[in-house]
């Protein structure tokens, strides 16, 4: 029997969107990174839509993401390691809020942490 993909275990597009909605809300409320999000050129809804498409593309293999590549999206932002950790914590909190288990959280954390050089530009 084949193990369901991470995308399937997260509930497909609906589940991924629920996580991104909560994660973006968490980012806005986060004392360390909230200002970055409240002053962004993109609306909250556009952030949710973009993040949903990004994750759905990466997890499902169906290419629906049309945004900038990760390095371009974060170029010149001078994001610190502490800010990255704060964002990752927000995402893990969003996953917990959606009832996703430790295995799914660990897999997503690894995927996101592997993007560290692209996000920090280092």
Structure description:
- With 122 residues, the chain is mostly helical.
- It has eight helices and no strands.
- It starts with 5 loop residues before the first helix and ends with a helix.
- Helix 2 crosses helix 4.
- The protein has a single domain, classed as Globins (Globin-like), CATH 1.10.490.
Outline:
The chain has helices at 6-9, 12-29, 34-38, 44-60, 70-74, 81-97, 102-113, 116-120. It has 122 residues and is an all-alpha fold.
CATH architecture: Orthogonal Bundle
Instruction: Indicate the CATH topology.
Output: Globin-like
Q: Secondary-structure element order, as H and E?
A: HHHHHHHH
**Alpha-beta content class:** mainly alpha
Total domain units: 1
Rounded to an integer in angstroms, the radius of gyration calculated over CA atoms is 14 Å
The biggest sheet amounts to: none
Total helical elements = 8
Descriptive keywords:
mainly alpha; 0% strand; Globin-like; globular; 122 residues
What is the fold's blueprint, element by element?
Elements (H helix, E strand, L loop, with lengths): L5 H4 L2 H18 L4 H5 L5 H17 L9 H5 L6 H17 L4 H12 L2 H5 L2
């Amino acid at each position: 029997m084949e193990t369901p993909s991470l995308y399937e275990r997260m509930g497909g597009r609906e589940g991924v969107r629920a996580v991104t909605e909560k994660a973006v809300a968490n980012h806005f409320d986060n004392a360390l990174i909230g200002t970055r999000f409240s002053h962004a050129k993109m609306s909250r809804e556009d952030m949710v839509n973009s993040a949903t498409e990004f994750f759905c593309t990466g997890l499902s293999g169906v290419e629906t993401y049309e945004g900038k590549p990760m390095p371009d999206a974060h170029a010149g932002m001078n994001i610190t390691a502490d800010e990255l950790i704060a964002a990752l914590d927000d995402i893990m909190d969003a996953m917990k809020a959606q009832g996703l288990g430790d295995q799914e959280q660990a897999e997503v954390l690894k995927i996101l942490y592997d993007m560290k050089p692209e996000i920090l530009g280092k």
